[in-house]
Design brief:
Radius of gyration: 29 Å
Largest sheet: 6 strands, mixed
Shape: globular
Strand order of the largest sheet: 1-8-3-4-2-7
Strand content: 5-15%
Number of domains: 3
Number of strands: 13
Helix content: 40-55%
Distance between the termini: 81 Å
Number of helices: 29
Amino acid sequence: MDNNKFTPAGIGTLRFSIPLYQRLFTWEQPQIENLLNDLFNSFEKNKEQPYYIGMFTVYHTGEDCYDLVDGQQRCTMLMLLGISFGWRDFVLCDNQSRLQFFARKHDQQYLNNKIVVAESGYMNQMMENALSYIDDFLKNKVGDQADAFKDYVYHQTTFFLSELPRQYDLKALTRHFERMNQTGKNLENHEILKVRLLKLVSPDKYDYYTRLWNVVSEMDKSILPELDEDAAQSGNTAVLNLIINAEARKEFIGKEALELNESFKLSEIQADKNKPTTNSAETQSRAIIDFSEFLLIVLSTQITVERASEHFNKLKLLSTFEVLTQTAEVEAFLDTLFECRLLLDYHIIRSKITSNSVTGYSVQVSGDEVAKKRFSQYQSMLYVSTQAHVWLKPFLIYLRGNKDSSVHRSLQYLQEWDDERLHGQNIDLNYGAVNRYWFWRLDYYLWEERSSHFDDVEHRKIAESYIFRPNRSIEHIAPQNPKTNSNVTLQVELLHCFGNLVMISGSENSRLQNSSYDMKKAYVESFINGSVSGSVESLKMLKVHHDYKTWNEDQVKTHHDEMIEILISSFSGSRFEEAMRKKIGKQRMTQPAEAVS
């Protein structure tokens, strides 16, 4: 199979069979309409632009004959489109259906009858429904453009074939299918991109770059070995040499890649028919970005990105990478990809996951534990508050030039970068306008200075274990519309000020919404006394609980100005300190005398 890229118009004599271990066509209206809408949107945007329907994993069974190991839903959908659109040259090959159902005579006969427009006593209801949805779509949405649309789909719908090794036996193929089926792993655009890019590398480097891609694409596992405690404290020469030395990286891919991926050999995977357990206590670590995001970030370090909203759109991964057309460009990108992956694993936090719940973050870079914790917390603050590409792109560029950067210097870089980008932003901390970032930044500096902000052991212990989490909602401490009679009645200015706001999870926001201050205080108390486990959701809320037994206008003003001062002091030592002092200082309730004058 010299060319693995096909369209319905250019499929030639290829024929496909759906093995017995595969399920039959199961797509329902939402999946079918999503595909048709995508095709039509692509058609309206650019009739000369290919539409990539994905990759079919196949196993060669004879001349131009392949078993579909993965992709049979999409392949069947193409057959149904061919029947509906009248693509006789596509749906038939040597006067037989191009798609065969092994040992399923009734379904095969149904498909054959649809191709030749003959009556059938047996009806495959899912396929019948799909044909009806296609006809309705043509009538109701495509209308007068039907012929042009059919022609576009015929010539521009593009798929790739990925052929499994021919030495695989039926047992190995079944295991491969079950592994994909169990884990819910669907072939994605980055797997199509892999095929496209590897076609452009030098033939003598094809195996090397294939192994390189396979290693870096496994984002759930760190490429680097775990460091023991002594190595983590003092630094690991072998790890740093691998990160810094290009020749060491080449040797690593050439000799170690297969060993690293030994556990992923398809022929050795044991099928497990049991449903995955969700109550395992085993802790795993995962990268904070997926592979498609990583690809786009690395590409952005090599090219000029004019419109970030389009460049970092994972749905446009394939079109974004069309800028790489030359062998030298592709190989340079792949080399950079591997280098950045090593830097990512060594310098960037990974989520610690237990039973699909984030229990914290860790970073592998060598250094003392206190410094590593500060570094990890600041990164996790950025991770939950800021789009990944916004901070990871400049940080990776910095790390490429400073591969052995110490944990202290790396934290300093991130804080300087963060301060600089905030310097150019407008700041409004009132409800309805405040950027949630400021709550997370405040929580970081409350955590960093927890010894001075929380003077009793219980509160300090809760603060010390604080974990940054995404998806937070802004809630009023004194509610806008109390559920019960409340002694706290605030003027609008105070009700919506930063001092009376806190950021918690959406679920807790729903539970505590419009609850009295006493109820919210009791919620925080549950963390203090240990009746609720986990991490308190806001150090600002913990600070309110720590400082105030009741909540009134004077306390709102006092707390508001104290939090403003903490935000101002977070820029202490920065070259933007004075500018940010003026900008954030305007948010105070009470201005100092020098500011008033």
